[in-house]
Amino acid sequence: MLLDHLPRTHLDVTLLYGVRYEEGLLYREEFERLAAEYEKFRFLPTVTRPTSAWQGKTGRVQTHIDEALALRVPDDALTTDVYICGLKEMVDDVRRELKQRGFDRKQIIFEKYD
Length: 114
Known about the structure:
This protein is 27% helix and 23% strand. It is of the alpha/beta class. It has two domains: 1-71, Rossmann fold (3-Layer(aba) Sandwich); 76-114, no CATH class. The longest helix is centred in the C-terminal third of the chain and has 13 residues, at 88-100. The model has no long low-confidence stretch (mean pLDDT 91).
């Protein structure tokens, strides 16, 4: 989706990507390359069980929602869509957090895979 979308869009795109271990960051190099190539794309990986070598963000994606939404201007909540994919607990938590921040349910697209 990103490879098709990024060259054609003027919108900001942020990928907040959470995994337990660094080796779970599938396509990490590709996402980092896209972030370097497209100013409008941000890649925010976070690891819940990092090794001592990990230098990036830690913790669950829920703790980084505000940072992921930081590019939005305050009134932009009406035009921002959020796509969530993952385990039920994370999806439900993120949906709840977004609703508390003023997002309408129609702006929150999700898929649970457990």
